[in-house]
Amino acid sequence: MSENGAAAEIVSASTDRLCLDMRFLATAILSLEKEVLEGNGKPGCDGSRIEFHSATVVSDYRSDRNSVARQIAHCVLHCLLGHVDPQGDRSLSLAQDMIVEYVIDSMDTPNTSVPGRDDRLYACEKFFKRAGSPSPDLLRNVLSDISDWQFSLYTGMFSRDDNSMLPKEDDGRWKELSLQAMTEAEGFIRKGECATDGLLAILRIRNRRRYDYRSFLRRFMTRKSDIRENIDEFDPIYYSYGLRTYGNVPLIDSVESSDSRTVDEFVIAIDTSGSTMRGPVIAFLEEAYAVLRQCNIGRGAELHIIQCDEEVRSDDIIGSEADLRSLISHFKLRGGKGTDFRPVFRYIDDLMKEGKLKNLRGLMYFTDGRGIYPEKRPPYDTAFVFCDDSYDDRDVPPWAMKLVIGRSDLMKEGTK
Fold first, then answer.
1. 256-278 tens-digit pLDDT
2. What's the CATH number of domain 213-226+261-414, 3.40.50.410, 1.20.1300.10, 3.40.50.1100, 3.50.30.10?
3. Which residue, 406, 268, 407, 269, is CA-closest to 335?
């Protein structure tokens, strides 16, 4: 048998064994064509096919029977996790490889197990902790600071393919396959058939829904009638005609009430523990106020901006845009210690008992999620707002709403 023929059989048999190992990923595994070319070289995947080189396949298989199945799993996971061509960014390339290898090592299936698992897991967990989350962008920032010899060491540990062949952008087809894989993995966890926790955690980062928080804020608005002149429904032609014709008697007067969306009282709490950054906080406050202003927050209503780490540090009351501008121009995060969400809820309870908050519509808590939550549901709507990939929402109570916004999108909005 020729070397090409032998390599093709190895790739086919490795694909079958991988499908048995990871049945919940079988659709994704089989959706990629496998092509064997002559010569040597790392495999590469462009989102439609995996390209192998015959001499390398045979050599790798002789040294470790699981090597080719591991390479296929590695390429499939790149696609499922939305990884793209790093375009020469070596830190991003290594970050993507580390995340993929971490998932495979976490599952530790019979046909993908290769030597060095403990060392790889230790390195991944160390860097994930420093990055705050197994996100390629966050991990890239950490890896860009390591020395050249460390970079060479970790590249040897984690690199199994040519990342320059990855797609230039995330493919919608793989987004659907990723959602399907997440559903399948959740089913396998319930059945206890496979250790898919690591995969599921990273798929959730990839597939979580990001929200337009401006639309989300409008959920807190209520409708009520305002007893004031409604300029929009006032007709000056009939009004002037009546004055000219009948003296000081207008033919039609202005409408003195209008049905509008409004918020009487609202609270935005800021987690001021050490992980909070000033820039995203200010951008969020400006956007939140812009939405609330549309629902008459400036007409006798109040917006409370509370800063809290493990205790309430400040409560700034905003009744107008001038108040907000004054706050932002002198804004300073107060605190920096551990996170405990309960003091804010106790503080609001006290304000309600004292009559200082009479019609509180809702609370939005801007945080990374790492703190102590209250056990009891408050008598007002509550949403925890998480920024980017470093958040932790595992302990959020079931009665609270969760909202994830992208830091890059937030900062982009804040610079307009």
1. 444 444 556 889 899 887 666 67
2. 3.40.50.410
3. 269
